[in-house]
Design a protein that fits this description.
Strand order of the largest sheet: 4-3-2-1-5-6
Low-confidence stretches: none
Length: 424
């Protein structure tokens, strides 16, 4: 950490597929802390360390962490600080919070980036010290993949692929990338023992109208399984070739879940990338002419903001379509100018049960909208002056949003960049 000028690192208990149960290769949090439960997140600074887990593992964590110098914090059933609350108290302004971006979803990373922006921290997503310090780390498993026969699966692989692509087509897409290991096992009718007590194999699956590809370590595939997959119309490619494969896709619309990444949220995520990363992202992720990108290499200051708009627009257009990209861009520009069309902003319809004495408490509204994970986190943010309601700063945690206002729609601004509309 000192060598890389990192002040804090978050180490989740997951893998690049967002699995709760992982192969031994990805049990990095276990190696650092000694805690072996399936759910838990470690945060390490230069002087302290904590482990956050749920009530299933309180007793186990206390026993396994004893004498390690790592403090256990309860995710539920107590008044312990959340990971971000703890970091806000333990990092100094200008400090660097780092993660291995492969182990975090876009949503998780965007929330951490917003948190860092609100607190004056810097956020790095390329920190992976383990190849240097974890000498006896287990390699990725090489257990053989086998076919889960149709008589037990109940449906053929071809039929399942057709169903998946049918659902993708309903959303205007003709392709999808599966990364969840259980989804891949179900779709392709394959099984393995890469994860203890879970019959899955570490892999990705790309499905489309033109080509289906199973990205997996080819040493795990014998001739019989390869022949079965070929019969199902599925090619086999190396596990680590998926990124290069995706970079070359030009004529397909790939399905992402809009409930997880709305067009506006997706646009805002890329609009807020760091100055040092924007041109690299444009070069790697967009299909703009190289001549145009080369001209941007010398851009500075306000020109970098223009580059961020270009990046956000181009990627949103690829994922959500041109119409949604234009709406997201217009909404973002409107918010900056103070004349936003709130129709395309992320919004939450609050449960009527939250109404008390003619309104909904601001803290309750923020938690219900997903802007904060707890009332305590929301209260701290409000008291620190990090919340605006319809353009006005609110510092009273007892503030109430009236029913009349909510019926029209109330815009809550969290920090410098996150906007959310709440209604009844």
């Amino acid at each position: 950490m000192r060598k890389s000028h990192v002040d804090a690192v978050i180490i989740p208990g997951t893998d690049p597929h967002q699995s709760e149960y992982t192969s031994a290769h990805w049990k990095l949090r276990d190696w650092v802390t000694g805690f072996t439960g399936s759910n838990g997140t470690a945060v390490v600074t230069l002087t302290d360390a904590g482990l956050w887990t749920d009530s299933r593992y309180f007793l186990q964590a206390e026993q396994e962490l004893e004498g390690t110098g790592v403090t256990m914090y309860k995710e539920d059933g107590g008044n312990d600080p959340t990971t971000t609350e703890w970091l806000a108290e333990n990092l100094e302004e200008g400090g660097v919070l780092a993660v291995n971006g492969l182990l975090f979803s876009v949503v998780q990373a965007s929330r951490l980036e917003a948190f860092c922006g609100e607190n004056g921290f810097r956020f790095a997503t390329d920190f992976d010290p383990f190849p240097e310090i974890y000498a006896d780390r287990q390699a990725l498993p090489l257990d053989k993949v086998f076919v889960h026969e149709e008589q037990y699966a109940g449906e053929s692989t071809q039929s399942k692929i057709k169903k998946v692509l049918g659902k993708a087509a309903e959303h205007g897409a003709d392709a999808t990338l599966l990364s969840a290991l259980d989804e891949i096992a179900w779709t392709l009718n394959v099984r393995c023992s890469d994860v203890e007590f879970n019959p899955v194999t570490i892999s990705y699956a790309y499905l489309s109208d033109t080509v289906n590809v199973f990205f997996v370590d080819e040493r795990k595939i014998d001739a019989d399984v390869r022949a079965y997959l070929k019969e199902c119309g599925v090619e086999v490619a190396p596990y680590d070739s998926v990124e290069k494969f995706l970079e070359k896709i030009k004529d397909a619309t790939v399905l992402l879940d809009p409930n997880k990444t709305s067009p506006f949220e997706f646009y805002q995520y890329w609009r807020n990338v760091g100055d040092a990363d924007v041109l690299k992202c444009i070069r790697m992720l967009t299909f703009l002419p190289l001549e145009q990108i080369d001209e941007m290499d010398h851009w500075e200051g306000e020109q970098l903001n223009k580059a961020k708009e270009i990046l956000a627009y181009e990627l949103t257009k690829m994922v959500h379509g041109e119409e949604e990209a234009e709406k997201a861009q217009a909404t973002a520009r409107g918010l900056f100018s103070g004349a936003a069309d709130h129709e395309n902003m992320p919004s939450t319809k609050l449960d009527a049960e939250l109404v008390k004495d003619g309104g909904v408490g601001l803290l309750a509204a923020m938690v219900a909208a997903g802007l904060c994970g707890s009332n305590r986190e929301a209260r701290q943010l409000v008291q620190q002056g990090g919340v605006l309601v319809d353009g006005e700063k609110v510092t009273d945690p007892k503030a109430v949003l009236t029913v009349d206002a909510l019926n029209k729609g109330v815009v809550i601004k969290k920090g410098k960049k996150i906007y959310h509309k709440v209604t009844l």
